[in-house]
Amino acid sequence: MKEWWIQVGLLTVPFLAVYLHIPPPNFSPALHTWRSSGTFFTFRGQQIFYRDSYGAVGSSDVVILLHGFPTSSYDWYKIWEGLMQRFHRVISLDFIGFGFSDKPRLHRYSILEQASIVEAMISHLGLSDQKVNVLSHDYGDTVAQELLYRYNHKRTGHINIGSLCLSNGGIFPETHYPRLIQKLLKDGGIFSPVLTRLMNFYFFYKGMSEVFGPHTQPSEAQYWDMWTALRTNDGNLVIDSILQYINQRKKYRERWVGALINASVPLHLIYGPLDPVNPHPEFLDHYKTIIPKSTFTVLDDHISHYPQLEDPTGFLNAYLHFINSF
Ligand SMILES: *[C@@H]1O[C@H](CO)[C@@H](O)[C@H](O)[C@H]1NC(C)=O
């Protein structure tokens, strides 16, 4: 029993982790404004946050924005006004487990469920018969691929997709390189509950700053907003479950890549080429080969994984150009 202190040390870790479970930071005024301009609907007993803004008169076009991991609908704040000048309705949601939505523990998070949540929201908003344009990023790309699959196959409850614009995301598992922190949390096994509790602003900041270009880094206040949204409703504690989407992409590769190959709606890709998760030129070459009918926009060399935040003007122009092309 010489090593009794090791055992005591190991026993202390979970208690320490519980102890470190400090309350989330307060909302900044900007984040508070975002939250109060949205509302909630209920999906299978869970509260889902969404925003639905009425924009340009004289247009009946609707756009729905699907955000990435591990952030939220707040990713779209820089292009929201610009979209409102073109669209009649601009709609976004926080997926379950993200942003201001509920984040149930002991829940099997899945892309399939997220797609059902989007369909439920569209139905809730009375838009089931209306064509909707889908604009997605990262994790949202995968949800969009599932929505497209259901649309292609006329599945009950499917949304009527008018067009799909993807941006930097793991569209193909074979050209996707998850960050170390994602792999650690995804495959942490019994350590995941400790790791997710030990996550703090510093680790979050380190991880996120790697997927923004060096010249397009968010301000510290913006990083705090992202972290605050994540920490709301103890979101850090469900990250390991959400991250199983990386395995789901492999499992459903044929279905989700096939949905793009088989799509009959206009497709576009907006790509920040400095992305370490979906690197250039490997990702783009692969995309062009597999989905030749899609058009694409490559943003400036210094734009990385969050193009709508790093180059909102370039991103918005590329999107509007696509929308006005069909
Ligand atoms: C794509 O279309 C082919 C031919 O119609 C079909 O066999 C295949 O199942 C479709 N794939 C998906 C994922 O929808």
UniProtKB/TrEMBL annotation:
Q: Domain AB hydrolase-1: where?
A: 62-312
Keywords, alphabetical = Endoplasmic reticulum, Hydrolase, Membrane, Signal, Transmembrane, Transmembrane helix
Q: Where in the cell is it found?
A: Endoplasmic reticulum membrane
Q: Which molecular-function annotation in GO is an example for this chain?
A: monoacylglycerol lipase activity
Q: Which GO terms describe its cellular component?
A: endoplasmic reticulum membrane
Q: Tell me the Pfam families matching this sequence.
A: Abhydrolase_1 (PF00561)
- Determine the domain of life of the protein's source: Eukaryota
Q: How does it sit in the membrane?
A: Multi-pass membrane protein
This protein's major location comes to endoplasmic reticulum
> Cross-referenced PANTHER family, in alphabetical order?
HYDROLASE, PUTATIVE (AFU_ORTHOLOGUE AFUA_2G14860)-RELATED, MONOACYLGLYCEROL LIPASE
**Full protein name:** AB hydrolase-1 domain-containing protein
Q: Which organism is it from?
A: Hymenochirus boettgeri (Congo dwarf clawed frog)
